[in-house]
Design brief:
Layout lengths: L6 E2 L3 H6 L12 H11 L8 H6 L10 H8 L4 E2 L8 H4 L10 H9 L1 H14 L5 H5 L9 H33 L8 H6 L10 H8 L14 H6 L1 H4 L3 H8 L2 H25 L5 H5 L9 H36 L9 H6 L10 H9 L13 H6 L1 H4 L3 H9 L1 H25 L5 H6 L2 H5 L3 H20 L9 E5 L4 E5 L10 E5 L5 E5 L2
Antiparallel strand pairs: 1-2, 3-4, 5-6
Helix pairs in contact: 17-19
Protein name: Putative retrotransposon hot spot (RHS) protein
Pfam family, one: DUF7578
Keywords: Coiled coil
Length: 513
């Protein structure tokens, strides 16, 4: 009967209505739009098989057969009204409604039809979500296309979950890892993190390329192997070229090649018996490695050295606080050395190799100099770094210039302490009484510190309770301040005097009567 047969219809409208498949108003290819849309889709184990298979398609079980044919066969055929059933009914027994075998075969090959058919079959088996689909044993009841979409969604979720767990594990290890001079070089370079070179190729393609290029045979292929011979694993040159053009591929390639370089560096260092940070510190062959490797190792080494110095400084500060609890302020008997250095760590006693690692990325480091102090190095630099051009490069850096200035200031103060001690000037009181000639023989920085300390002392005396001196005093004056000094064995003058302190903290003599 004619009503039972698919009949021909004009094709013009069908082709006009099919135009949006080419990109519609955007002017972009439909495949590009579908890829962009797929990128925005985030599946979960609760996602329905219907949403995954249709993926925002306008298909519906309630769509009539003729509407389906109009949209997907280009309007070439239609059935009579008595056979124009809903697609939910049609997928159950398609040959009951389309007797034209050629048209029926064309319909059965449509991915849209296969999606609807798969949904019907899965629902019939009680499978509605991806979680239920994962444990479903009869996946072969649906077409390969539908099975592939479900598998891709499941793989995407599993891969993302794996990546999330690995990221959490990396963060946990990073929090727990504490580097020391004994830390293994490999641990320093990779810090216990997941390496992308060991990521499965198909996992990467699923996460970053929406599954483009995924081949079942490549499930155990690692990215490190893939980058050596990409065409060996993805035979389609067009697909491979499209993958290589993406930013995700470029980032992945850069990361993997960097990791492979680090792995090679570990191998070379182990061959040279350099397996720990302590051995790396004095290693002469640093510049034979890549800048990235040097930067990573020197960065952690600097961190460790600074942490050690911080701990030393904290211990020193603890001792200093304990000392200050017993002696809270300067007195006239405070030693010159304590005033100038106040117990702090002296940079001139820092090791040369530590400085070169921490401040100059290891430039010029030599095992023979492991015990050389900066004070010795700055006295005779060429004795410890004989390479003239290398030494010039080091001296040209701002960090070198700042350190040299700090070390020379400390060396000058240490020399001034020695000279003052030789003159019998070993505390603040004796400094205040020293002659102009003695003070002229010290550096300006030393004089500034000592003068400032004595002013601080005198100010504290001014703020304290009034002092009523007893005994005989003589007035002493210098260019910086006034004060009095008791004269041992002195006697009252015949005319008699009183000694008072003015508001400036200086002493003066007043006649009686």
């Amino acid at each position: 009967m004619p009503g039972n047969q698919a009949s021909a219809v004009p094709q013009g409208d069908g082709q006009r209505r099919a135009m949006p498949e080419l990109g519609g108003e955007t002017g972009q290819p439909a495949a590009t739009l579908r890829r962009a849309e797929a990128r925005r889709t985030q599946w979960t184990m609760n996602s329905t098989v219907r949403d995954i298979l249709l993926e925002r398609n306008t298909l519906s079980y309630n769509m009539k057969l003729n509407d389906f044919l109009w949209n997907h066969v280009g309007g070439r055929a239609a059935v009579g009204e008595d056979h124009n059933v809903t697609m939910q009914v049609f997928v159950q027994e398609p040959d009951d409604y389309v007797q034209n075998q050629q048209l029926l075969e064309e319909i059965l090959k449509l991915t849209a039809y296969q999606a609807l058919e798969a949904i019907y079959k899965l629902h019939h088996e009680g499978v509605y979500s991806l979680e239920q689909c994962r444990g479903f044993k009869s996946k072969n009841t649906v077409t390969p296309h539908a099975k592939g979409k479900l598998k891709a969604a499941l793989t995407q979720i599993q891969t993302e979950e794996k990546a999330r767990r690995e990221a959490e594990e990396r963060q946990r290890r990073a929090r727990e890892m504490k580097f020391t001079m004994s830390t293994n070089i490999e641990d320093v370079l990779f810090k216990g993190e997941f390496c992308y070179k060991d990521m499965n190729l198909n996992d990467f393609l699923t996460l970053e390329m929406e599954g483009g290029g995924v081949v079942d045979a490549n499930w155990n292929v690692l990215l490190r192997e893939f980058l050596k011979e990409p065409a060996r694993y993805i035979h389609d040159a067009g697909v491979l070229n499209e993958i290589k053009k993406t930013g995700a591929y470029a980032r992945m390639e850069g990361t993997v090649r960097e990791e492979m370089d680090l792995e090679e560096a570990v191998r070379r260092l182990q061959h040279e018996r350099v397996v720990s940070l302590r051995q790396w510190k004095d290693h002469e062959g640093k510049y034979t490695l890549t800048p990235v490797t040097r930067r990573k190792l020197n960065g952690v080494l600097t961190q460790v050295l600074r942490e050690e110095r911080r701990e030393v400084e904290e211990r020193r500060e603890a001792r200093e606080r304990a000392r200050r609890r017993q002696k809270l302020e300067l007195t006239v008997t405070t030693t010159i050395k304590d005033v100038l250095f106040r117990g702090r760590v002296r940079v001139m006693d820092m090791q040369l190799n530590d400085f070169l690692v921490m401040e100059l990325d290891g430039m010029g480091i030599l095992p023979a100099n492991r015990n050389v102090l900066l004070r010795d190095f700055f006295i005779y630099p060429t004795r410890y770094i004989s390479d003239v051009f290398l030494l010039l490069d080091i001296k040209a850096s701002d960090r070198y210039k700042r350190m040299e200035r700090a070390v020379r200031d400390e060396m000058d103060m240490e020399e001034d302490v020695r000279r003052l001690y030789e003159k019998g000037v070993d505390n603040l009181l004796k400094w205040s009484l020293a002659t102009a000639e003695v003070k002229a023989n010290v550096h300006n920085l030393t004089k500034h510190f000592l003068d400032a300390a004595f002013i601080e002392l005198m100010s504290s005396m001014t703020m304290s309770a009034p002092i009523k001196p007893e005994g005989c005093y003589e007035s002493v004056y210098n260019a910086s301040w006034h004060h009095v000094v008791e004269v041992p064995g002195g006697e009252e003058t015949g005319r008699g005097t009183t000694t008072v302190m003015d508001v400036q903290g200086s002493w003066r003599l007043s006649r009686k009567g």
